[in-house]
Write a structure and sequence with these properties.
Layout (H helix, E strand, L loop, with lengths): L1 H15 L27 H6 L8 E3 L3 E5 L3 E10 L6 E7 L6 E5 L2 E6 L6 E4 L7 E10 L22 E6 L1 E12 L6 E11 L5 E10 L5 E11 L3 E11 L15 E9 L2 E10 L4 E3 L4 E3 L2 E2 L4 E3 L6 H13 L4 E3 L6 H10 L2 E5 L24 H15 L5 E5 L8 H11 L7 E2 L19
Helix pairs in contact: 3-4, 5-6
């Protein structure tokens, strides 16, 4: 590995050194956090526009080829840490690897993943030094790993949508949000838990808050509170506020109204984090037999679709599906973040699905006959479901969770269901290959496309 580091640093000296300074809960060492897909912006304007090109704490990860063998391709990129990134937490966000992969920073193994379709983040701060750092990824070239082997080849370029970003050591680490009608459906309740994190060695005080703007651009609510957080820990700041005049902005297929929620953190007199999300006002529940949207039974008319390479083409496709009567999209694995944005914008629901797509032995119910009945794979099954859920749980376009594609059934899939059920989410859990067993709440309707 030292040879790889020397190689990448030598290449960087002449070809592709990246000068970041010119571009405008505590995570255990080596672990990748399972949380909402957060993008921290330095200004409100950039947050409003989802403009990452001028954000000082963001850089695209586009590694170049280094070495290749019959089984492994090594790619890499140099991270030159600018002074502005000092005293900040750094993350490597990986999407679209074309095989199982291992991440190294300065010769140290950060982590490994066999999940090629779920965006994954690695906490790299413990491995990063001042100045130039070599980030090397070894990608196995044998194709899709076992648990996604029934998927078609990934049409996206390798590491497309991948990036490196940083957050202050006192920052918004995660959040949970619910924005639903009250029992009389005359106004709404906003419930927001901002999970604040402190990566310093000692207790620190900061402020976290939010503001909520309705679809017409009118400010409906704002709040800010101080919190004291012990070193290397997280704390939750809870907000619960009534929001009036919400009945005119109920989200539906016909009227996909979107509120804008901006969360922020403040240290002293300086705003340090802006995190924007869009909210649909409404609720989805399952009463054991029927799917209810805003208290009324909801009939699914579904199509199976995964995001295309470009946002423009995907938006065009989603609008065309809706024009043909589709109201719900079934996906094969967790999608790029802007796909869910577009579904909420167009007025389409989503059944989100974990990347468990392995048809091998799906009808063999002996132990290990199918990976889904292999006790040694329980941790990986649960991890894939956990990452899907933790990443997308705040998406109000999602009306159900799917454990995976047609992958047989058994002990590993039972445990994945039990983990997801324990989260207390009122949306149903579905699995087509449950074949009448208990680890599926509901049978999804067939697609119309």
């Amino acid at each position: 590995m030292k040879m790889k580091r020397l190689t990448i640093l030598a290449i960087a000296a002449t070809f592709f050194a990246i000068d970041l300074a010119a571009q405008t809960s505590h995570v255990s060492r080596g672990a990748a956090p399972a949380r909402s897909e957060i993008m921290s912006f330095d200004t409100r304007r950039n947050a409003n526009d989802d403009n990452r090109t001028n954000v000082q704490q963001y850089v695209t990860f586009a590694p170049v080829a280094l070495t290749s063998t019959a089984t492994v391709q090594s790619v890499g990129q140099v991270l030159e840490v600018p002074q502005i990134w000092n005293n900040r937490d750094m993350y490597l966000h990986i999407e679209n690897p074309h095989g199982a992969y291992s991440v190294y920073v300065n010769d140290s193994l950060v982590g490994r993943s066999t999940d090629t379709r779920t965006p994954t983040e690695f906490y790299i701060s413990p491995y990063v030094n001042h100045g130039r750092n070599a980030i090397v990824i070894d990608v196995e070239t044998s194709g899709e790993p076992l648990l996604s082997s029934s998927l078609a080849a990934n049409p996206r370029a390798q590491f497309e949508n991948s990036y490196i970003y940083s957050q202050p050591k006192l920052r918004i680490y995660d959040y949970d949000v619910r924005f639903e009608p009250d029992s009389t459906r005359t106004f709404g309740w906003l419930e927001l838990d901002i999970i604040a994190g402190n990566s310093h060695n000692y207790t620190e005080t900061m402020e976290v808050g939010y503001d909520l703007t309705d679809p017409a651009g009118k400010l409906q609510d704002y709040n800010m509170r101080e919190c004291s957080i012990e070193g290397h820990s997280v704390d939750t700041v809870h907000f619960r506020m009534p929001i009036y005049k919400t009945n005119q902005w109920l989200w539906s297929q016909r009227t996909p109204h979107l509120y804008k929620l901006t969360m922020y953190s403040k240290l002293g007199q300086m705003m340090t984090d802006y995190i924007p999300i869009r909210l649909c006002f409404g609720d989805t529940r399952f009463d054991g037999e029927r799917l209810l949207r805003n208290g009324k039974e909801f009939k699914i008319k579904a199509a199976r679709y995964n995001a295309e390479k470009s946002r423009t083409q995907t938006l065009k496709d989603l609008r065309a599906l809706k024009s043909r009567g589709v109201n719900t999209i079934y996906v094969d694995y967790p999608q790029v973040y802007w796909f869910y944005d577009q579904c909420e914008q167009v007025g389409l629901f989503v059944v989100d699905q974990a990347n468990l797509n392995v048809e091998r032995g799906r009808n063999d119910r002996t132990i290990g006959g199918t990976p889904s009945n292999d006790p040694t794979l329980v941790d990986e099954y649960v991890d894939r479901v956990r990452r899907m859920y933790r990443r997308n749980r705040n998406r109000t376009c999602i009306i159900a969770w799917s454990l995976g594609g047609n992958s047989g059934n058994g002990y590993a899939m039972y445990k994945a269901y039990q983990w997801l059920k324990a989260q207390g989410d009122e949306r149903p859990i579905v699995y087509r290959d449950a074949d009448g067993e208990w680890n599926s709440d509901w049978q999804l309707p067939a697609t119309i496309e």
